[in-house]
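Design job #97: recover the sequence.
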């Protein structure tokens, strides 16, 4: 991949890692993260004894996966030492060999875990694996086909874990929530499979363009467009299905869910909360009386309400931009949520300054 110039690398160099991440549960650290462990516990509904059994199996699994990772590192070192040309085709061939070993080991992990599960739990193993696979994909744009910074947001499993769901729900709400989550699972699995099909089609046709990567922008334009459209569709599905999950929740939890989901889907508009900026400045003042503190809280709440409307406009602008987006080099290099948001940020800054001027 050393011949790729930065422009085309935006598309191609991110496609191979996208493919590898999406094939199975592939993680840089062979140990399960807390979110992955919680996903397994929640999806399979493990009791404490079953959780202990899984933890024991995961230790052995991590040791064996680490051995594979070490072999991969050594393989890369040999490539550099021997000066062998590393093409896209060669990379895919090597990865398929490694992926099979990892997949086989994952199969064995879940087969061993199934020995501790009842029939109903065992039937949920495939769903669990799909969720783990997806968790590595929905954090960002897996294809690299959208301009930088346009996030896929937060996977619903991660948000459910953060909110402690479905614990605390009554039986009907729990059933509604789990049905909505399963509907999301099915929809996103189809979307991911569609994206990967288009990604692999592009990768397969890229081999041979290493010496002239800019030519690929012309020769593979149709394939690139398909990847872009698939990425857009997946993001839109992720957004709409996430809101469908919120509708399954009681009103207070639905409001919290939608707020967190939106902040993750549109990280740039929510990267700075003006209310917090103002509150921090106000609290730097000498000791406040009770009345003064009430005034501070009223000012920050008022500012947050006014800037929230601007953030909503900013988010709609991002959605409109992505809806019309077609791949081109200039857009990939220059158009970001941050750049699109300049006029919105300026309006929020003006509001914040107005409130700061009211500080005695």
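Job complete. Output follows.
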């Amino acid at each position: 991949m050393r011949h790729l110039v930065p422009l085309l690398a935006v598309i191609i160099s991110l496609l191979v890692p996208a493919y590898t991440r999406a094939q199975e549960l592939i993680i840089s650290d062979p140990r399960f993260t807390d979110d992955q462990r919680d996903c397994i516990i929640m999806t399979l509904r493990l009791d404490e004894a079953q959780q202990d059994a899984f933890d024991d199996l995961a230790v052995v699994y991590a040791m064996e996966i680490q051995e594979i990772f070490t072999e991969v590192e050594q393989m890369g070192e040999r490539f550099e030492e021997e000066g062998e040309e590393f093409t896209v085709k060669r990379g895919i061939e090597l990865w398929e060999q490694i992926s099979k070993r990892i997949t086989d080991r994952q199969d064995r992990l879940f087969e061993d875990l199934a020995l501790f599960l009842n029939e109903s739990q065992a039937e949920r193993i495939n769903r669990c694996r799909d969720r783990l696979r997806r968790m590595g994909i929905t954090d960002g744009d897996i294809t690299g086909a959208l301009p930088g910074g346009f996030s896929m947001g937060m996977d619903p499993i991660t948000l459910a874990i953060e909110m402690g769901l479905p614990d605390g729900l009554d039986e009907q709400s729990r059933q509604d929530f789990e049905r909505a989550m399963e509907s999301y699972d099915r929809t996103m699995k189809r979307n991911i499979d569609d994206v990967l099909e288009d990604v692999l089609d592009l990768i397969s046709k890229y081999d041979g363009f290493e010496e002239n990567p800019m030519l690929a922008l012309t020769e593979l334009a149709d394939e690139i467009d398909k990847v872009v459209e698939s990425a857009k569709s997946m993001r839109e599905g992720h957004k709409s299905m996430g809101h469908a999950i919120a509708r399954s929740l009681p009103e207070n939890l639905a409001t919290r869910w939608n707020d967190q989901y939106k902040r993750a889907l549109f990280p740039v508009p929510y990267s700075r909360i003006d209310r917090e900026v103002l509150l921090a400045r106000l609290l730097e003042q000498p000791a406040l009386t009770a009345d003064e503190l009430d005034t501070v809280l009223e000012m920050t709440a008022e500012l947050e309400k006014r800037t929230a409307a601007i953030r909503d406009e900013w988010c709609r602008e991002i959605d409109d931009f992505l809806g019309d987006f077609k791949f081109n080099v200039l857009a990939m290099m220059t158009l970001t949520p941050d750049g699109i948001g300049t006029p919105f940020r300026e309006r929020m800054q003006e509001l914040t300054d107005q409130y700061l001027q009211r500080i005695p």
